[in-house]
Amino acid sequence: MPILPKQRDIFPDDLLDEAGGLVGRKLADAAHWVAFYTLSRREKDLMRKLEAAGVPFYAPLVKRRLHSAGGRVRSSFVPLFPGYVFAPVDDDQRRAALATNTVARWLSIADERMLISDLRAIKRLIDTEKPLTPEARLEPGQPVRVRSGPMRGLEGTIVKRRGQERLLVAVRFLNQGVSIELEDVDLERL
């Protein structure tokens, strides 16, 4: 049982949907994707304040299981990318986010299409509910595409970690990503 229930990590729910979502529709011309870098452990606080103000955002949360000294297993939902909240905002919304006193700085996104593509891939991985492993730095490797199953069409890079071959899906802007263990039979070279 989680310590606290999972809070909303995407607002609105269809923000990253290709058809009909905020990204699928055209964002206001003045809106641009930014990465808010929060003060220490304030990601969820910023997300709650952005939602209350009606500002769209995405900050993926993943389930983490902790074993206590008494042998109990507890789970909590933690940010996949600690310190970062992504948002397509105009100048007024950006200023409103900065006024929450939860943001240390903000970073503009040079290639918004690449970021949106990466965030969609990350969301698809999280939606499979398989255990994910955060990867701090990207490693060079063979680019691949998943050819079958629920992640069909997803592209990433193969990395070796602790003797396991894993598919790495990256948010290139942050030079970070997540990996998932897959069978070689499910992958094809690009």
Description:
This protein has three helices and 13 strands, in the order ββαββββαβαββββββ. A hairpin with an 8-residue loop joins strand 9 and strand 10. A six-stranded antiparallel β-sheet has the order 8-12-11-10-9-13, with helices on one face. The protein has a three-stranded antiparallel β-sheet with strand order 6-2-7, with helices on one face. With 190 residues, it is of the alpha+beta class. It folds into two domains: 10-109, Alpha-Beta Plaits; 133-189, SH3 type barrels, CATH 2.30.30.
Give the secondary structure arrangement, pairings included.
Layout: E1 10-11, E2 32-38, H1 43-52, E3 57-58, E4 61-67, E5 73-79, E6 84-89, H2 91-98, E7 103-108, H3 112-127, E8 133-135, E9 143-146, E10 155-161, E11 164-171, E12 176-181, E13 187-189
Antiparallel strand pairs: 1-3, 2-6, 2-7, 4-5, 8-12, 9-10, 9-13, 10-11, 11-12
If classified by CATH, what would the architecture of the largest domain be? 2-Layer Sandwich
Which regions are unreliable across 5 or more consecutive residues at pLDDT < 50? Answer: none
Oligomer: single chain
Which sheet architecture does the biggest sheet show? Answer: 6 strands, antiparallel
Structural class: alpha+beta
- The order of strands across the largest sheet is 8-12-11-10-9-13
What is the level 1 CATH name of the largest domain? Alpha Beta
Gyration radius, to the nearest Å? 17 Å
Counted beta strands: 13
| Backbone shape | globular
Q: Tell me the helix content.
A: 10-25%
Q: Give me the number of helical elements.
A: 3
Taking all residues together, what is the mean pLDDT?
Answer: 85
As a percent range, the share of strand residues is 35-45%
- Sketch the topology as an H/E string, one letter per element: EEHEEEEHEHEEEEEE
**Cα distance spanning the termini:** 41 Å
